[in-house]
Amino acid sequence: MSRLSRLAAVGALALVTGVMSVAPSFAKDIKIGVLMPRTGRYAETGLSVVRGIEMVVKNTNDAGGIKSLGGGKINLVIADNGSDPTKTSLEARRLMSEEKVSFILGPYSTPEAQAFMPVADRYQVGGVGLQTTLIPTTPYFSTISISAEGFGKAYADAVKWLISKGAKINTVAITYANNDYGQVVSKTAAAALAAQGIKVLESIPVEPSVKDMTPIVLRVKSLAPDAVISVVYFQDGVLLHKARFNLGYTSPIWLGGSAGFSDDKLWGTLGKEVAEKTLTSSFGLAFYSADGKLPGLKDALQKGSAAYPDKVIDQSFMFGVQAARFLVQALENAGTDDPVKVNAAFRGLKFKAGDPAIVLPIIPGDVHYAEDGTLAGTSAIFVQWKDGVKHTVYPEAVASAKPIIEGVK
Questions:
Q1: 176 vs 16, 31, 94, CA distance in Å?
Q2: CATH number of the structural domain 30-146+294-378
C-alpha cells in the first residue's frame, strides 16, 4: 500500500471513529425514585399507585427502553413514606443524596408534598405530586391533580347544575379534612356557593386521625341542610358512609370526594348493604372512571387487568399510570439522566387531546404545564354508583348516565 493510500485509510478510520464517539455506544439506564405510602393510613392507595407505575415501566423497558438514552432501562427505587410528612422529607433526601435518582414519582398527598418541596428545591431533583392539590412553591415540583381551589369551585358548579335539574338546594353543610387541602377546598366552595345565593350553614373540620365519623354526621344532621359537601380521603370516606348508614341519615343530597366517594374499591369495602344506601344517591368528585372515552384509558385498563387480574384497577392505579407515562415522555425528550434537565423536560410536557399518554378523564382536551407547575387543562368529573359500578353523570358532555337526584323524578 502506498504512503498516500495508508494516509487515506487512517483518515477514513479516524472519521468513522469520530462519528461513533458522537453516537451512543451503549444504553444508559436511569434511576427513578418512587415515594409513596406503603404503610400507614394511605397504604392501600400508595400500593395501588406503585402497581400502576411498575406496569408502565415494565412495558417501557420490554419495548426497548428509552430510545433517546440508547435503549436505557428505567430502574425504580421505591421508598415508603409511611403516610407521614416527616418521613416523606427523610426518604426524599435519601433518594436524592444517596440513591442519586434523576426524578421522583410522588409523593401522594398534600401534607406529604409540603414536606417534599424544600428537599427537592435544595437538591434540585424534580418530583410530581399525584393527588396533591397545592400550588408548587418550587420549580422542582409539579402536580397532576386539580388544585384545591379548583376542587372548591367544582363542588359549587355541581350544586348549581343539580339545582338546574330540579334539586331544591338552599342550604349546604360542609365537612372537610382539617389540613391545607381541606381548608382551601372548603373556603373556596363556601365562597362560590355564597355567590350563588346558597347559605352555608357550617363548615366542620375533621381531624386526620379520626377513628369514628359518627359525631360529624350527628352534627350535620342537627343542621338539617338541603345538601352536604364532604372533602374526604378514602379511609375517612369509609368511616363517613358507615356512620351515615348506622344513623339512618342518607336523605340529603351528598357530594364528596375524591377517593372517599369515588375510589373503585369503595363499594366492595363498604359492602353492598351500606353502599346501596349511601353511594347510589351521592355524587362523587372523581379523577377517573372506567367509562371514560380516552384511548389511553382503555389501553391502560386492558393492560392493568392483564397484569393484575386479582386487583381492582382503581383511581389510584390510574394516577400511577398517568405519572409514569408522563415521565417516560419527559425522559425521551430530555435524552439525559441529569435531574435538572429531566425536571425541565417534565415541566415542558405538552399533549394534544386524546394522546395515548393521557389516561385520566380529568384531562379532556389539550394539556400542558403552567409556569407554576400545575397541569393546565384539567376539569373535575362527578360520578354516581349503581350495582357496584361508577358512571359519569357530570359534566353532561362526557356523561355516560343520567343522574339520580334525591326528591327529583
A1: 66, 38, 33
A2: 3.40.50.2300
